[in-house]
Here is the input.
Amino acid sequence: MISKESFFQLNASRQWPAYEDPRPDELFSSWLTRIAHLHGLKVETFCKIYWKNLTFWNRDIDRFYYDKVSAVFLANSRITPDKLRNTFLSSYEGKLFELATYKTNQNWIIPLGIYHRTRSGYGQMYCPRCLYNDEQISKPYFRKSWRLSLSFACVDCGSWLSDRCPNCNSPVVFFRNEVGFKNILPDVNIARCYRCREKLSNEQINMPADKSIITLQTTLNRCLIAESPPIDFLVYPFQYLDILHHLIRLINSKSTLLAQLRHSLCELNKLEYWQPIGSYRDRFDTLPIGERMKLLLLAHYLLEDWPSRFINVVYPIKRLRSAWLLKDLTSKHYWFDYEVMFHFYITNSNR
Ligand SMILES: [Zn+2]
Ligand SMILES: [Zn+2]
Here is the structure.
């Protein structure tokens, strides 16, 4: 443990002495917490040193690349601007979504349900086995992809992801692990429940995922790479993912007409029909992990072999036509609109 004063003396060279680069796919807040702890400081103290007037933890710090925050990292470490930018969720711009928005919820990012410094949402997932493997070589850390509603399984471990403490069901709030202690503990480990201190890491895979589930996750992960678009002619991943998100909303709707679409898709995928849960206001991104996986499976299936499968599945549902299929579609994409209008547009003359 070092004092604030000796930290500054050590840091006279303006290079953090115990600095470490972010690990692969590491999330900004995880990296920030690790760097503070590597220097023997509580992350709260560390933040107060550098960003005295910035309210840090009562917002989703990982969502955007903030100049005020990044300037400190660029000045005190050898990190490159690109590497630093890549630790924020806004680095998914042009992939998961066209533009990172600042004010509203963003498709595919699970909200944390922030209330002051507490979290009511299960927006921070993790793979217990990955955390365990991290512990064997270094300190555990949290991945960016564990904040995405597109993620439900770990393809490396063949396991479902988890989003809560296995003991007390609390959400994961790793920066609060030090709350209640005057100084950080020498063996502070961010892979523990902040409330009951239960280990989040686990050598055993308690929730193995079927091969088909891992295959789906692998396919969806690949959607994020522009070089292998799920539909040949698409250039940017978000052109596909915007429509995937839109179709999920339709499939998860409580309307009787759209329930027919859900029925057909369940039947074709040999999945037992289930009623949408929650109110119509519940966004896909906040649904439980298993629920999200099933919806992703159905929507992804509907877009395979584009456009023939889509036409074949939708056509028999007599009243499901363009007005419904394009309802509340916020991001227009020509490849989708065109087929919907061409095959499912109803005028008075063709009614
Ligand atoms: Zn894993
Ligand atoms: Zn707990």
